[in-house]
Amino acid sequence: MLDLSKGENIIGIVQGKTKTMEYTFRVLDLKRVMQGQYVIAKDRETGKEFLGQIIDIISSGLTSTAYCTVLGEIKNNKLTAPSRPVKAGSEVIMPPRELLENLLVKALPERRLLVGKLLTHPEFVPVYYNPDDFAKHIYISASTGGGKSYTIGVFIEEIIRLMEQYQEEFSIIIFDVHNEYGGILLPNDDPKQIEKLKEYNLSPRSFSDNVIIFDWEYNPPKLSPYFTPDRLLFIYGMKEQRHALILQQLVKEKGSVHLEELLNMVEYAELHPSTRQALHIRIKALLESGLFSEDYLVPEEVFQPSRVIIFRLAEIPLGDFGLRFFVADVLRQIFDRYKQRKFTHKTLVVVDEAHIFAPRKGKKDPIREIIERIAREGRKYGLWLILASQSPRDLSEVVLMQCNSVLALKMNKEDITEFSKIFGIPKTIGELLTTFPPGHGYLKAPSLILPVLVEIRAKMSFDTKGNPDRQKLVDNAVKKIALESSELIYGARKREREFIEEKKILSEEADKPVVKEPEPIEKEIKKQIPPPPVLE
Predict the structure, then answer these.
(1) CA 376, 380, 385: angle at the middle one, nearest 5?
(2) Which of 73, 411, 427, 472 could be disulfide-bonded to 415 (CB atoms 3.0-4.6 Å)?
(3) Are 111 and 128 contacting, i.e. CB atoms less than 8 angstroms apart?
(4) Do the bridges between strand 440-444 and strand 452-456 make them parallel or antiparallel, or are there none, so unpaired?
């Protein structure tokens, strides 16, 4: 039981009719309560303690009333289902920090991710995320300026720290649509953010070790120019699937064809002129785009445990089509490897602006289909998703329904109903999110006994804040790592080719027959001239 002898802990008195799962209390000091806050009601008759959350506060004149939902009865630092309502006249107090830490923290393993602190408590209460919850995918949502990318950066930092500390076989793949995640290579230098890190016993640092960067300027990540019949579907969206099926028919039983061979097949096939032209234009555009090369990405060489792979895609060729094709093709390769059990380590795939790839409206296309398939099946293979978008209304419902964790930051009013329907967020809490500053939000996850209102911690790595001069620092760091990544991935392959070629040349030299060189012509002539006579 709690010691209520200190009167300053009392913040209200239960009043009016009460129910098992809800009650109201008269607020004694409005400055000490806020919407979303956790409170404890101690029954005046039984002494039982009930943890509740303030859902709404209504003020009338000098009187304020808080409306609470009951989260459970507290027994031995655990929550159990309440069996009876709390009595009117019972005292309502501020929960001790230690109690909230026990409820929120002890349920998690030691290998946990420190993502922020409890927003609705006057004392520091850390908020952790269980990395095992990634297996059921997490969806992060925030309107423009709500801190979505910044928050993803915090999660990435924590996963890297987990890999460093416990040598867990994770890898992280980041599809960086707007080139926003290069700051991970440098330590944070913002004085205000550094001061905030001290609260978490953290300090600025870079996370450049084991980071592989592909940048379209320094080391473009090329794809294979060889197409299987299934892969041909990725060339077209659903509205153009007729063309993809024609290409499949041309290829027929061939295992794969090179794009140049495919172009020749189209030229000589019996097709309607307009169809031939449409196919020709698309395939030629792919050939000339720079997306494909004989030196293409090989998943086994790139996606290895303990690596963080960042694809910087802001400058990808062919615009939106190239972006969607690239992400779809890479995800298909990774998913196929996991299905075939060629990959056994856990991989977290970060897809920011996920609505671009898996939109709610419109028919399915290859990229939406592969993301939905990973959302449904990926967890059993160890392929997990961190998805983010500005609004849940724009993202595939199939994907959203597979996300058992949600972090909702600042949102627009029109999104509240959608969040309440899919994730069970109380509407009053949803309305509160519309007023939040960047980095404040609502976190719900399978391993969290209680959903929490959280303030995301400061990043340990660099924050550009859209400043061009600061962005140059990031660009220089990106260039350095990108060139090193190119040498690591492609350099080994180049040296192997050179070794094989050298070995082949030496072998050919060794197999050549030994031919006796003819004597010089002067010697032949001398042999034919008789010696001069000997004079007596």
Answers:
(1) 55
(2) 411
(3) no
(4) antiparallel
Residue pLDDT, tens place only, 194-249: 999 999 999 999 999 989 999 999 999 999 999 988 888 888 766 677 888 888 88
Q: What mean pLDDT is predicted for residues 409-428?
A: 85
What pTM was computed for the model? Answer: 0.87
pLDDT in the model for residue 536: 44
**Torsion of Cα atoms, 430 then 431 then 434 then 440, to 10°:** -50
Residues 6+ apart with CB under 8 A from 301: 489, 492, 493
Sign of torsion, CA 127 160 170 359? positive
User: Going by DSSP bridges, is the β-strand pair 22-27/63-75 parallel, antiparallel, or unpaired?
Assistant: antiparallel
In what helix (H) or strand (E) does residue 323 lie, and over which residues does it extend? helix 319-339
Q: Is 171:304 a contact under the CB 8 Å cutoff?
A: yes
Q: Are 359 and 365 in contact (CB under 8 A)?
A: no
Specify the DSSP element, H or E, that contains 263: helix 259-268
Q: What is the mean pLDDT of residues 151-164?
A: 95
Beta strands in 343-392 (DSSP E): 346-351, 383-389
What backbone phi and psi angles, to 5 degrees, belong to 228?
-85, 165
The DSSP secondary-structure symbol of 85 reads P
**CA gap 305, 210 in Å, rounded:** 10
Provide mean pLDDT across the span 153-170. Answer: 90
Q: What is the mean pLDDT of residues 154-176?
A: 91
DSSP 8-state class, residue 491: I
SS3 content of the chain, % helix, strand, coil (to 5): 40, 20, 35
* pLDDT digits 0-9 by tens, 84-133: 999 999 999 999 998 898 887 766 777 899 999 999 998 999 999 999 99
Token match 């690591």: residue?
488
Q: Which residues contact 191 (CB under 8 A, 6 or more apart)?
A: none
Identify the H or E element spanning 67. Answer: strand 63-75
Residue of higher predicted confidence among 17 and 423: 17
Locate 476 and state its tokens: 């220089």
Distance, CA of 355 to chain centre: 14
* Distance separating alpha carbons of residues 202 and 456, to the nearest angstrom: 14
| Residue 242: alpha-carbon gap to chain centroid | 33
Contact 314, 306 (CB under 8 A): no
